[in-house]
Amino acid sequence: MGRLFLHLAALSLAACVLVPAAGGATAVRPPLVWLKGEGNFTKSHRHPASIDKIVIHVTEGAFWGSVRWLQSPRAHASSHYIVARNGRIVQLVHLSDIAWHAGNWKVNSHSVGIEHEGYTYGSEGFTDAQYDSSARLAAWIARRSLMPIDRKHIIGHAQVPAPGGGLGGSSHHTDPGPHWNWRRYIRLVRRYAGFEKLSVTPQLPPGTLRGVVPWRAKVTGGVTSVEFSINGRVVWIDRRAPFAFAGGRGLNTTTLGNGTHVLTVHGIAGPGRYDIARTTIVVDNKAFALTSAGARPWTKVRGTVTLRVRPWGAKAKRVVFRVDGHRRVVDSHAPFLFAWSAKRAKPGKHVLQVVATSVDGRDANLRIPLVVSRPQPKPKPVPKPTFEIAAQTLSDGQQVTGLVLWRVDVSRPATRVEFWIDGNLRGTDLQRPFTLGWDTASETPGEHSIEARAFGAGRAAKAPLTVSVG
């Protein structure tokens, strides 16, 4: 009677230590298929508390072939369970009976054997599904038997003492081998047994937030779903790890407005098991706008207009250029440039429109009205016998901006025309029309000395000018 009292007292104490507090997770037996063996085990009436070990094995063969072999009396071996690479579990021996799996009768009589499809030294290792299903099964057995979850009570076949000395049972087995991840396995068993603390933590970039930012939830304790809330309103529910807002696409802070906001993550593991964490963020998005160069509003144009657009406040994902409402170009990479030839346009008003879309979904617009003019044809000049520069597209004192087409006309046939800017040769043209494209955006604002020099038939002519870069 005294022994019975002590035994019951010990079980009661173990239950107090191992059973989690109210609301904690309890291990649930994973789904399995029952295929009873044919006599290659010992009938017994083991109580759950008499089981103090779980022994991990490897089949050294395919799943169904191993199942048929361990069912056969000719095998003289058995196991309580076999876990396939896809996570399927087959039970061959009842837990109350003794399976012949460890090669050590003392270990067999107080243990449960779990076989895993695979090879001890196979390079393919073991699958995530195997780890998950086996850990759920081991957690259920451990909780059922009030067994501590550690490496003294969950062991490999290679740790079983051999009757004649050594390890690995009577046949000195070495499974589960070097590819079995014990640390991962024990962590999973403890989690499914309900010993891992349940928690959820929001993960956001530090500091002030702008644009689209990642928002994730770090969880422990078997959380199966996470609710993401903004200022008290649930805006996303993720039921698959790793838990992330909007499926990992991130939080678009431009939809919140500048200022402080409260973000909440609510991790749920089951009925009555949850954790909530909140964090306050500060949003400070700059206005998304456009500036341009190369075309001023209401400018009279005749030839090609080159427009350069620069987005401000956010990175542009796409820039669309339109002329009079008709889309002409879509540009997705900076620098955003657009060239429009007014030569074929009707004289009068035309509108260049730019619509930029930022990476966070905002739009910015820019409208530039222009006037296409057609000058009256000038009478052809009477050819002069002298060799000189007859005309230039630039004039003395002119203010220039953006890309400038500097064109030179020579009174007599010329073999080449040189274009000099501030005493430096910038280009040479060998054929009419003698032209240089000058990007004044790279020049220092202010006055610059330019000079065209023409050469032909042993003669030379030059025409210096002074222009101002705006």
Structural account:
This protein is mainly beta. The chain has 4 domains: 170 residues, Lysozyme-like, CATH 3.40.80; 85 residues, Sandwich (Immunoglobulin-like); 84 residues, Immunoglobulin-like (Sandwich), CATH 2.60.40; 81 residues, Immunoglobulin-like (Sandwich). It has a 6-stranded mixed beta sheet, sandwiched between helices. Strands 18-24-23-20-21 form a 5-stranded mixed beta sheet, with no helix packed on it. A hairpin with a 2-residue loop joins β20 and β21. α4 packs across α5. The longest helix is centred in the N-terminal third of the chain and has 18 residues. The N terminus is likely disordered.
Secondary structure: elements and pairs:
Layout: H1 2-18, E1 33-34, E2 41-42, E3 53-58, H2 63-71, E4 81-83, E5 89-91, E6 98-99, H3 105-109, E7 111-116, H4 128-145, E8 154-156, H5 182-192, E9 199-203, E10 212-213, E11 216-220, E12 225-230, E13 233-238, E14 251-252, E15 259-270, E16 273-283, E17 289-293, E18 299-301, E19 304-312, E20 316-323, E21 326-331, E22 336-341, E23 348-358, E24 363-372, E25 389-392, E26 399-400, E27 403-410, E28 416-421, E29 424-429, E30 434-439, E31 446-456, E32 459-469
Parallel strand pairs: 1-5, 3-7, 3-8, 4-7, 18-24, 26-32
Antiparallel strand pairs: 2-6, 4-5, 9-11, 10-14, 12-13, 12-15, 15-16, 17-19, 19-22, 20-21, 20-23, 23-24, 25-27, 27-30, 28-29, 28-31, 31-32
Helix pairs in contact: 4-5
